[in-house]
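Worked problem 6 (solution included).
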Amino acid sequence: MSGPKTKRRLIIAALAIITTVVVLIACASPIGKYIIESYVGPTVLGRHIKTDWVYVNPFTGYVHVSGLKIYETGGDSVTILSARALNVHYNVLKTFTKIYEFTDADLVQPEGWIIQDHKLFNFTDLVIHFSPKHPETVTISSGPKVRHPLHINVLNFKITDGIFHYVEKSIPINYYLKHVNISSSGKWWARDSMHVDFNMMGPDTGTIKGDGYIDFYKLDYGMNAKVKNLDMSILEQYLRDLANYASLRGRVDADIKTTGNFKDRLALHAEGLVEVKNFHVGKSRTSDILAFDKLSFCVHDLTPSRFQYYFDSIAIHHLAFVYERYDYLDNLRNMFGAKAEKVKSVTADKTKFNLIIEIGRYVKVLVQNFLESKYRLDHFNVYNADLRYVDYALREKFVIGADPLYIHADSINKSNPRLKVSINTGVSPHGTFVADLSVNPATYADFDLHYKMQRVPVALFNPYLITYTSFPLDRGIIEITGTTLVRDNKMNSDNHLLVLDTRVAKRVHKDDTKWVPLPLIMSIVRSPGNAIDFSIPIAGDMHSPRFEIGKVVTQLIENILIKPPYTPYIAHTKSVEDVVEKLLMIKWEMHSSELTEGQEKFIGEVADFLQRNPGATITVSPSNYAAKEKEYILLYEAKKKYFIAAHQLKSNVVSEEDSITIDKMSVKDSNFVHYLTAQPGTTLIYSVQEKCEHLLGKPFIERKYAELIKSREDLFLSFFKKNGTAARVKFAATRDLIPFDGYSNYKIEYFGATPEKLIKAYDELISLNNMNPRKKYAGKRRATAGMLIDEKKLKKNPGK
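Solution. The predicted structure is:
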């Protein structure tokens, strides 16, 4: 009997245990849900927590939370964190040793929000609450006693496939990272540091991978990170806080190793490679102020606290920068304010966080001891840069640029006796500039500079000349060379200016041009060899240099005294130049398809030459200054549209008298500018030219330009159609460029025979160039002959 009773008791006991386990598990889950929602949320986190369901196994310590939602403080309307699931294993046995240990935790597909308002975050209270508390001594009645922090271990935790948003309310900023995967061996209560591995993606493209550590007590950190093709759009939102308008885009690649301290900005050590690619900043996504294809930093050792700045290389590829000046302010001040008011306002607001300002402040801290440090840069290069200056404040647009610009320097090292930098650039649209700079790194008041600018056309500066003198210059080149030596801030500089073969064109009669007797001035400053040739020494202290103008005055007096006997020679030379040039080139006045009487005569001579020489042909190569022609068209047509509206004319056709009035009207006329500005969509358009284009539309300008080009061709061919030689006139492909002399033109090449008049004139011109006083500049004239006259294509086989 004892056997069956014992067996029955065992079965009952087993059933009781099983029932107890089942009941405990069954009860533990709702109890766990209750504890999480009613205790952990309000009491521990100070936030509401909701879950879909909770499974708790009190024997294994396994907890599964499904549909987790943690809300912002003060309500349950805004979620700070949600997750599809939270899986946790808890070491139950260690609880009896007063150690609360989570052996692993996995937050599955979380979505979190980091919200910043000025310098406060939505989790600031949690950081303060959970900051590690080291043992502290407290006094009790029985004497001093040590109070120890709570022993909590959170081990082997990970975040799987999360998405985290960053929101800054005051600016505002909206940014997020997706596919966030973070894993760590965890945080032990007795250890201050924690190691983390991470892997995530940017909002568009780009990845961030790496690992790091943080010491919660000392606030030290370390990180190894690889960034690939990360979008920089977050900076655009901060830039808009600093500017009236802004567009910024770019990508970042990086492979860096760094250590530091959150409290001490100088306690930094970094090495590795950082590259910024396809970077653009400007008024809009189609209007850049600054852009480059790639900027790369290769860092050997950046340790400011030890005064070490060692770089392998810094390189920038295809840098583009444009500075535009308007009637009021410029593109930079329009963007950031006349006195950078928005930047100053944000910088002065200590409660506001702006990432760009903080980066700038950090860089300032890093480089504040740079000149006193052991710096080294093995290679510095700027490749194929394009720097451009555009002035819209004149009556017509002025553009000059450095393109392509190359800057090269090697072994920039404080221990080197001299730092050497070379600069080589084209001067857009024509010309070259080279410079070599040698600097003493111990003191930047000790340097040598040698520079040379060549083959820059004088006609490039016609927008200024027309605005301030009424006279443009036709032809001519500028050459400037110089050497500057500075020792202990004492300067000795020798500079040489040569302006060769300038010619004053006819006066431009407009309402917005000033008058200065430029022909008289040029007759004084030019030598009999048709050159302005001055040496300009500069000496003295760097802060107050003295310009030695005695030589310039002497040369001017010499020109005035010796020039009269050369007057017949000068006049004859000009006449011969005119014959050569006009038989080889037809220049067109801007926005005109009419020929001067002299041009009609020369074209007639060419047509007669073809008639007398049946085997001869000519090829006409049109070179159109398209940008300037279209500018003249849009200014005239916009003024015409304003004139019609202001005078309430019913027809778009204006009389010849009205046309002259429109042409002379100033493009800066206040009523005209007000009319342009009143058009819809001009808020971010600052130049008159751009407002005119906005008013008329590009298709209209293109159509008018095509009509102009066609009418010129028809007029030119009409001379040859009259005598039946048009079939022997061939037109080459049109080139749209910026001509050397500032005019659209037709270049004429002769085949089969060359006009005898041209050959004689050309031979005579060569002879004149080799005679005093032009002989001194014969070599430079030959060097620029290709710009003025295509010497190689002049066929010396005379026709009848």
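Discussion: Residues 27-132+148-185 form one domain.
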